[in-house]
UniProtKB/TrEMBL annotation:
It holds the Pfam family FlgI. The basal body constitutes a major portion of the flagellar organelle and consists of four rings (L,P,S, and M) mounted on a central rod. This is Flagellar P-ring protein. Assembles around the rod to form the L-ring and probably protects the motor/basal body from shearing forces during rotation. It comes from Parachitinimonas caeni. Belongs to the FlgI family. InterPro entries: Flag_FlgI. Keywords: Bacterial flagellum, Cell projection, Cilium, Flagellum, Signal.
Length: 389
């Protein structure tokens, strides 16, 4: 950009007095500036994380009590055995066969332990039924130890459940909203053992990890660190990691050094991707994803099969004789309709956005557009990664 400014300055001195040419040159420089501004840089902290920053999964088995007859049935032996074990801790001895309650449900409790969590901090927990309980509405979780993959207890969970749904049934009628067998407890777990995150590797260096691996982006990250913080201290190890050798004068103020790394501006490279969700009919693609010259013909054939059931009721059954009864008669009809014209789209050096807009104009459904995109990818005309969800 500095070279452009020097050239423009020289041309301005040469074209002094030629207002028309100066105005044209000004528009050209403005266009270049707009092109430079269009490439937006992003902070490193939004592109990845330092090695050692990770959440740890915790899980536990517990009981939810206080349900209004919507808990596990009597055929669930695990729940009755758990109730028996819990009552034995309070000096009450009952065999599982002596317990007959539908106000209790066996559940699994999940939580994520932050690497910076300290003893006494609260964690949000998710409670899910593992039995045949109909609903957890109104229930409270008993004290449940939460363990890590190493089998150690890191937190204790308990509290009243918040369930975003309900289920009521009576006389064969069922009314249900969302999933009443899943609940949550905000700050329902208390950390008992804290973790200490290790940001430095065995060599005493920092490692920055990209969320999306890309050789171009990781090279730009290493170059930005070397150019702004410490010359030659950053090296790209692979497509997702940059190893940073901490300068000697920064080792005693590591937090400040990491803060400056996080706030460096880098322009990430972007892969061309088209994401398609067939279940919901959603298409997400970059507006500049290119497609080759292609011709698309899309027709519409509808087949409708309808069945009408009627009851044939005989008249004067008593006079007709024995064995005469009501009969069900089914009338089936098949209708086939085809549009007289089919949609035709010719794409010449267009983008996916242009193609979708053209298909929408001829009233092509979203699921048909998904089929068209898959066919274009199979034909080798779509220069992007097609992700089907």
């Amino acid at each position: 950009m500095e070279q452009i400014a020097d050239v423009v300055g020289a041309m301005m001195r040469y074209l002094k007095g030629r207002s028309a040419l100066v105005g044209l040159l000004f528009c050209f420089v403005s266009f270049l500036s707009m092109g430079q501004a269009a490439a937006e840089a992003i902070r490193l902290k939004d592109l990845g994380r330092f090695s050692g920053w990770r959440e740890n999964a915790l899980v536990g088995y517990g009981l939810v009590t206080g349900l209004a007859g919507t808990g596990d049935s009597l055929t669930n032996k695990a729940t009755r055995q758990s109730i028996s074990n819990m009552l034995s801790q309070f000096g009450l001895t009952l065999t599982p066969d002596q317990i007959a309650s539908r106000n209790v449900a066996a559940v699994m409790v999940n939580a994520n332990l932050s690497p910076f969590a300290r003893v006494g901090d609260g964690l949000d927990i998710t409670v899910t039924s593992i039995g045949d309980a109909r609903s957890l509405v109104g229930g409270a979780l008993m004290v449940t130890p939460l363990k890590g993959p190493d089998g150690k207890i890191y937190a204790l969970a308990q509290g009243a459940l918040s369930v975003g749904g309900y289920k009521y049934d009576a006389a064969g009628n069922v009314v249900q909203k969302n999933h009443p067998t899943v609940g949550s407890v905000p700050n329902g777990a208390t950390v008992e053992v804290s973790l200490r995150s290790e940001n430095l590797n065995r060599d005493g260096n920092l490692t920055f990890l990209l969320t999306s691996a890309d050789y171009t982006t990781v090279s730009r990250v290493a170059n930005a660190i070397n150019a702004n913080l410490c010359r030659g201290c950053a090296k790209a190890e692979d497509a997702a990691s940059v190893e940073i050798n901490i300068p000697n004068d920064q080792k005693h103020k590591l937090i400040d050094f990491m803060t400056r790394i996080e706030n460096l501006q880098v322009e990430p490279d972007r892969r061309a991707r088209v994401v398609v969700n067939e279940r919901t009919g959603t298409i997400v693609a970059g507006g500049d994803v290119k497609i080759d010259k292609v011709a698309i013909s899309q027709g519409d054939l509808r087949v409708t099969i309808s069945t009408e059931n009627t009851a044939s009721q005989p008249i004067l059954v008593s006079q007709t004789g024995e064995g005469v009864r009501t009969a069900i008669v089914s009338n089936t009809r098949v209708d086939v309709s085809e549009l007289n014209e089919s949609g035709f789209v010719a794409a010449n050096n267009n983008t996916v956005a242009d193609l979708v807009q053209s298909l929408t104009k001829i009233k092509t459904s979203t699921r048909d557009i998904i089929s068209v995109l898959r066919a274009i990818k199979a034909a080798g005309a779509l220069h992007a990664e097609l992700i089907i969800q």
